[in-house]
# Entry
Amino acid sequence: MGLEARIRSKLLSALEPTRLEIVNESRLHAGHRDSPATGESHFRVVIEADMFKGRSRLERHRLVNEVLAAELGEGVHALAVTARAPGEKW
# Structure
C-alpha cells in the first residue's frame, strides 16, 4: 500500500471524518534539494471531523500528526493540513 492510501486509511479510521481530501503535491517539488523523489513525499490534507469541535488549530494539527506519525517518519517530507469541525467556514 502506498503512502497516500495509508494516509487515507489511517485518517478515516482514527478521526472518522465527514470530509477528507488528500492531494499528492509531490510533483510540484520534484528536483528540490530536500525532496526524496519518491513521488509520495508532499501531501495536502483537507479534513472535517466532529473530533475537531472545540479544539484549537494547533490541537487539530497535532491530532492529525499523531495519527500519521509513522508516515511522517518514513517518507512524508511535507504535510499541509486544513482541519475543520462540521459547520465551520472553509
About this structure: Residues 3-15 form the longest helix (13 residues). The chain has a mean pLDDT of 89. The chain has one domain: 3-84.
